[in-house]
Recover the amino acids of this structure.
């Protein structure tokens, strides 16, 4: 038997020696998985004695570079807790970036269409677009954007929108569009 604090220290050292990028975080996640508790609950009682053997097996798997998601069978992706197995593709951080870019493109497109309609000009350029993500949507949900013009000059149109899913705001965007002269 070994206290949680010592087990985490030992686990982080083993993972660090194996070249794992975030050894302390992954040691916590592995131990929490072994004990079937949250990482928060794990840290509440650092002196709780645990059986080190099951934890040691998971540390060995991770030290041999097996993905953490396959060891725990779970992977968080855009606030979704997904079950994973060797038969599934494990979502990566760059996949989240791709989704954010797609949502930003959606906001840009809906704001741009509104700017074109308001200006009556077909040629516009996005000068600036700020998108702030508030909450994750779920796969299959339909995004709705209702852009509104905040201000309009002869050469610029300022638009704001909320991207919603079932009346839940998942992103807010502010865009500035330049009216281009006909070429």
């Amino acid at each position: 038997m070994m206290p949680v604090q010592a087990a985490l220290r030992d686990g982080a050292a083993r993972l660090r020696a194996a070249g794992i990028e975030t050894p302390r975080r992954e040691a916590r996640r592995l131990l929490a998985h072994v004990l079937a508790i949250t990482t928060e609950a794990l840290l509440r009682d650092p002196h709780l004695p645990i059986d080190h053997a099951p934890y040691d097996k998971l540390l060995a798997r991770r030290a041999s570079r097996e993905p953490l998601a396959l060891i725990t069978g779970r992977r968080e992706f855009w606030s979704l807790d997904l079950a994973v197995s060797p038969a599934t593709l494990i979502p990566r951080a760059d996949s989240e970036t791709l989704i954010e870019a797609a949502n930003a493109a959606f906001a840009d497109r809906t704001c741009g269409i509104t700017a074109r309609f308001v200006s009556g000009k077909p040629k516009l350029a996005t000068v600036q677009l700020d998108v702030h993500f508030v909450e994750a949507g779920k796969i299959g949900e339909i995004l709705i954007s209702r852009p509104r013009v905040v201000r309009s000059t002869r050469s610029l149109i300022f638009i704001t929108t909320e991207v919603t899913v079932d009346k839940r705001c998942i992103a807010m965007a502010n865009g500035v569009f330049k009216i281009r002269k006909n070429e």
Observations:
- The chain is about 40% helix and 30% strand.
